[in-house]
Amino acid sequence: MHPNPAFRHDDRQLFETLIAEVGFGMVFCTTPDGPRVAHVPLLSTGDGAIQFHLARGNALTKHLDGQTALALINGPDGYVSARWYADTKRVPTWNYVALELEGRVRRMDDDGLLAQVEAVTAREEARVLEGKPWTMDKLPDSHKHGLLAAIVGFELEISAWRPTFKLSQNAPADERERVIAGLEQQGALAIAGLMRSLVP
């Protein structure tokens, strides 16, 4: 989390939206073999937890149950050129959105894992533009059970939400407008849009 309090945000619904829209993140944990990270699809339960699954052979799988871990969801970002500012004493920076979630992890049972996989699949299939959504029902039972046996589901009970919404809040309004215009010209529309909508 960025140390500047200007870049904090406290809108829990916005955090939930970020998790749902991005849908993917990283889970970090210290293990006896050293620090490890896994890249995972993430699903919010809506009541203060996130769920994810890992391949059974992943280096984190055997260590996560009962441990405190950190999940990270990265939102839009964009390089901010110093040439966009009127103030020649300003330097380049990077605007970005990130959400860190810390909490205790528990291993899920088989029913919970299946529900999680089906929910993630349904969420993502709804975003596919053409055709009928794919579901696990399309798999033969033996194949479905084999695939599910190859992964392990986890739930992280969130004890700390640490958001960073670094959107040039520390710059005057006219300078922010120049940054937004520069980002838009570079094609970084998502971060420019958040600057417009979230910074008064």
Would you mind describing this structure in some detail?
It is a single chain. This protein has six helices and seven strands. It is α+β, with helices and mostly antiparallel strands and 200 residues long. Strands 2-1-5-6-7-4-3 form a seven-stranded antiparallel beta sheet.
Topology record:
Elements (H helix, E strand, L loop, with lengths): L11 H11 L1 E8 L2 E8 L1 E2 L4 E7 L5 H4 L3 E13 L12 E15 L2 H16 L15 H9 L1 E16 L6 H14 L2 H10 L2
Antiparallel strand pairs: 1-2, 1-5, 3-4, 4-7, 5-6, 6-7
Helix pairs in contact: 5-6
What brief labels describe this structure?
200 residues; alpha+beta; 6 helices; 7 strands; 34% strand
Strand content: 25-35%
Strand count, sense and barrel status of the largest sheet are: 7 strands, antiparallel
Radius of gyration, in angstroms, nearest whole number: 20 Å
Rounded to the nearest angstrom, the distance between the terminal CA atoms is 21 Å
Summarize the structure.
The mean pLDDT is 95. The chain has 200 residues and is an alpha+beta fold. The radius of gyration is 20 Å and the shape is elongated.
